[in-house]
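Hi C.,

You asked whether I'd gotten around to modeling the 209-residue construct. I have! Everything is below, sequence then structure, no commentary in between.
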Amino acid sequence: MNTIHVFKRAAAPPEPEPPPLPEDAAPVAASLEHPDRFTEVFDLYYAEIHRYIDRRLGADAADDLAAETFLVAFRKRSGFDPRKGSARSWLYGIATRLVSRHRRDEVRRYRSLARIGGEPSGEGHDDRVVSRVAASAAGGRLGAALAGLSSGDRDVLLLVALADLTYPEVAQALGVKYGTVCSRLSRARRQVREALGGVDPLGTENDHG
């Protein structure tokens, strides 16, 4: 008697559900048909984008560039892809690209800090850049270290230190690979740590991938 073996094809595993879209993506999408909805994005993030630019370039530049960040974002909102990350990270990427037009001004600020060891009035710039570093002990050295970083390494370090972005968020903001973020941040931290006598500019709690 012939024996017939019946093999049942294993059921295909269910398709994984896509991750939920960031909550702040909704007003960006809605603004394509209702432009006034973009004010929700502005209200959510203008203050922190302004603060980020202020900490890198100063208050005068921050007023203009923060406004320009949202103008650029509004004009390019149709290209925002929420599957790649949040509107917040997207805005930080735009702001960072605008800051990049003023690299000389930024480096000049850090070199000035290196010479005088702090700003003449108000909150020390080094305190505002990396809160983990004691201003009284490391102001000048921190300024020199930041001025000596390459622009790409400095962008990554400050997006983590100032904006508290995760590594994937930094990758989205800058349009680079995750591994590039890791290598740039590692290099920047090493250079700044050496300049500060072993003090990590971020602290271990900021190691969020």
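If it helps when you're writing up: Residues 38-57 form the longest helix (20 residues).

Thanks,
B.
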